[in-house]
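A student in our group prepared the protein record below, which I am reviewing. I have pasted the whole thing underneath without changing anything:
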Amino acid sequence: MSFMITMSQKELHRLEVIQNIRDQRLSVVQAAELLGLSRSQMHRLLQAYDHSGAAGLVSKKRSRPSNRRHSEEFRNAALDLIRERYLDFGPTLAREKLIELHHISVAKETLRQWMTEAGIWVSRRERKKRVFQPRGRRDCFGELVQIDSLAPSPARSDLAKRII
């Protein structure tokens, strides 16, 4: 029976240390100090390893939604209000208006993520940049091109007549 286990770097390090304990290269106390855990926590990890193997060291919370998340109804209500009234607002200003006028309190970062997922808001980094036509190279080093967009003043025209 082969299956794939996804582990973080921290969990992989724990696995190496536990294998060193089982190979009797480390004591439980030394391993606990190495991992920054208590001795009793280390024994708990050893029991999990003995019972389930490497999969026993993997976090059970992985790929599960947070317990602190907002409900879908609350999220949809906030996004509907933003679509109706604050479509051109950024997350910070939209949050202020939701709190001030609708008494809906959501963290700015949470609202930014919701607005990005819904396609309401795009970060500045991801917005399409304006493309400017590149300026052509000069023929000589140090050559400048002066472009006067203002109408010629009388003083300029007198100076031009004297030069010519």
Remarks:
- Helices lie at 9-22, 28-35, 39-52, 72-85, 91-102, 108-118, 154-163.
- The chain has a mean pLDDT of 86.
